[in-house]
Each structure stands twice: as structure tokens, then as C-alpha cells.
Amino acid sequence: MFDRNRQDPVLSDAGRLLASVLSSAGEARLVLQEQPSGRQLSIGPLGRWSRHRSPGLSHNGRYLAVLVPQGERSLALLWDRASGNLHRFPLPAGEEAERLSLSPDGRHLALAIRRDGRPSLRLFDLAGLLEADLPAGMPLRGGGPPAPPP
After folding, report:
1. Is the pLDDT of residue 144 over 70?
2. What CA–CA distance (Å, rounded) separates 106 from 128?
3. For the purposes of burial, counting CB atoms within 10 Å of the CB of 91, is it exposed (0-12), middle (13-18) or buried (19 or more)?
4. Do 25 and 56 meet the contact criterion of CB atoms below 8 Å apart?
5. Radius of gyration of the chain (CA)
6. 130 within a domain of the structure (yes/no)
7. How do beta strands 95-102 and 40-41 pair?
8. Over the stretch 59-84, which tens digit does the pLDDT of each residue have?
9. Which site from 8, 48, 57, 149 is most exposed, i.e. has the minimal number of CB atoms within 10 Å?
10. Contact partners, residue 87, CB within 8 Å, separation at least 6
11. Residue 67 lies in a domain
């Protein structure tokens, strides 16, 4: 279905979840929906902001990231839908976030920024902050030796 008011669509693995920005009456708000039903899901603490842009979703949709205005600048936010934790990624003075990209496993966040008027890129390694969001059926690596047979 074509909707002119939708921007920045992003799908989780297998297309189970769709995050997009819905523009209406001068506002741009984040919408998270199950597919194919279209049922809207909570965006948790991300709903405190308006004028959302550039959403990102991890493999299974555990992590939802978005840019929101903070004064004259943009702030990258990442919400862990499983734990409820909200993570903020402020930028130094002179840097403005324009777009974001969240890796499918939720372990890296890339921000396209402007630094003193020039395009640049800032990468965040989230491995120490977040658990990996692996596709369904993927085993975790590591964790010590295998358990002995019963």
C-alpha cells in the first residue's frame, strides 16, 4: 500500500516488523508495525520525542534506533525493546547527525554526520553495551566448552 506520508522505511529480518516515520500536520513520528497485519506496536520511551527520523531495526526488532531533535541538534537514541533500556549517543560540539544505520545484530551504530559543515561518519561499537540480536535459529558463539553428553 502506497502512503505518501511515510518516510525512511526499514524492515527487520524476514520483514516481520516495519519501522517508518509518519508525517502528519507538520510532525514526523516513529511508527513500529507488525507485518503483514499492520498492527502498531509501542515505541516505548521513544514516544517522548517528536520529529523522529532515520529509524533502524536489528534482525528480530529487539533494538530500535532513531534520530530525534535535541535543541538545534539531533540525538541518536537506541531502545532495547526486551529490557526497556534507552541508550543515548550524544555528539561533540560541531557534529550534527543526519542519518543512522544500525547493524542487523545491534552491535554497531553508524551515524552520517556533518562536522563543521563537511560530511563525515561516526561509528559506535555497541558490543560491550548490548547483546547480539541474531536471526531466529542462529546459535550464539562462545560461552565456553560444550556441555558433556547426558
Report:
1. no
2. 11
3. middle
4. no
5. 17
6. no
7. unpaired
8. 999 999 999 998 888 999 999 999 99
9. 149
10. 77, 78, 79, 80, 126, 129, 130
11. yes
The CA distance from 59 to 61, in Å, is 6
State the Cα–Cα distance between residues 114 and 77, nearest whole angstrom.
18
Cα-Cα-Cα-Cα dihedral of 103, 106, 107, 109, to 10°?
A: 60
Mean pLDDT of 97-119: 94
Q: How many domains does the chain have?
A: 1
Give domain status of residue 56, yes or no.
yes
How far apart CA 119 and CA 106 sit, in angstroms, is 24
Q: The whole model's pTM is what?
A: 0.85
DSSP states of the chain: ---TTEEEEEE-GGG-EEEEEEEETTEEEEEEEETTT--EE--GGGGG--S-EEEEE-TTS-EEEEEEEETTEEEEEEEETTT--EEEE---TTEEEEEEEE-TTSSEEEEEEEETTEEEEEEEE-TTTS---PPTTPPPP-SSSPPPP-
Q: Which residue range forms the structural domain that includes residue 53?
A: 6-93
- Assigned domain for 80 exists: yes
